[in-house]
Write a structure and sequence with these properties.
alpha/beta; Alpha/beta knot; 7-stranded parallel sheet; 5 helices; 7 strands; globular
Length: about 170
């Protein structure tokens, strides 16, 4: 029998993870990131950019999770990442690079808060941000495409991080 929201046995939990979104500006993606953040119990989302659409289009996919997930909007992603790093966060970018490690093989620190940086839907995480990160990870892919939707990739990554941290 399928369980409804009130019948599940999941324990509410918050993980020391901050999601930093560099220039993620697609409203449905932003709404879905709220749902993903809520599902994985992350501490907060920081949207970075000039035009972050937090209106009706975003709310169609967020399903009211924007009310329960702590979030803020900042203009400069580098300032956000630098501040988090100076506050003791381990900074991890989700991007395919010449130095990135496969998510499946990566061991995340258990005693340090983590900031997961995701990038623009078309251009990914900027080189400037990549240069400040403690690690860069990617998801191995086996088809013809070398990328996937930012929300799908974030969901897979948050699943693995929280699996390791719990």
């Amino acid at each position: 029998m399928q369980l409804d929201h009130n019948s599940t046995h999941f324990k509410k939990r918050t993980f020391p993870i901050t999601l930093v979104c560099e220039q993620v500006t697609n409203a449905p993606n932003i709404g879905s990131l709220f749902r993903t953040a809520d599902a994985f119990g992350i501490e907060q989302i920081i949207f970075c950019g000039e035009h972050i659409p937090l209106g009706r289009k975003m709310m169609k996919t967020s399903r009211a999770t924007e009310k329960s997930v702590k979030h803020e909007v900042k203009t400069n992603a580098l300032d956000v990442v630098s501040t988090l790093k100076s506050n003791g966060y381990f900074i991890v970018a989700l991007e395919i690079t010449t130095n990135s490690k496969a998510l499946v093989d990566y061991i995340f620190p258990k005693d340090t808060p983590i900031a997961l940086v995701i990038g623009d839907e078309n251009f990914g995480v900027s080189e400037t941000i990549l240069n400040t990160c403690d690690a860069t990870i990617h998801i191995d892919m086996y088809g013809q495409n070398s990328s996937m939707n930012v929300v799908q990739a974030t969901s897979i990554t948050l699943y693995e991080i929280t699996r390791q941290l719990k």
